[in-house]
């Protein structure tokens, strides 16, 4: 038996939501956290069946789960490989650098969102490393 949670499973999303909301660096990294109210998707390149939807309200994650929103409701759709997400979660490389290298890809939404909120993105992805994750999905 393992204590690891399957990446982007509901249990993983619940743990990630708690960890992200408890990380003051995420909130501090937003250009304007009070106006950061958006729905977004994080997915895995080449694995359309592995994705999660989250909703931010004023810089805090209010919901995070496997896909629930209609694509038309999503402000951002961001994809990366399992390896890219592992690299970011481990803090081996910042999300912003992975984005600039083309390893994190915006499928929908303004790239400017990542640039002006780079501190939040980097802290957000590093926080994933706090969750014991089973990446073999």
UniProtKB/TrEMBL annotation:
InterPro entries: SCP2_sterol-bd_dom_sf
SUPFAM superfamilies xrefs: SCP-like (SSF55718)
Keyword entries, A-Z: Plasmid
Protein name, as recorded: SCP2 domain-containing protein
Organism the protein comes from: Rhodococcus opacus (Nocardia opaca)
């Amino acid at each position: 038996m393992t204590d690891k949670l399957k990446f982007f499973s509901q249990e993983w999303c619940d743990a990630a939501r708690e960890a992200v909301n408890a990380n003051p660096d995420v909130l501090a990294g937003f250009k304007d956290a009070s106006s950061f109210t958006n729905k977004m998707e994080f997915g895995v390149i080449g694995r359309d069946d592995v994705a999660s939807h989250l909703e931010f309200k004023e810089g805090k994650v209010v919901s995070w789960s496997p896909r629930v929103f209609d694509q038309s409701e999503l402000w951002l759709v961001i994809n990366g490989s399992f390896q890219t997400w592992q690299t970011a979660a481990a803090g081996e490389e910042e999300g912003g650098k992975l984005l600039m290298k083309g390893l994190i890809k915006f499928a929908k939404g303004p790239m400017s969102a990542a640039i002006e909120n780079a501190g939040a993105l980097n802290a957000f992805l590093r926080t994933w490393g706090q969750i014991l994750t089973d990446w073999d999905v």
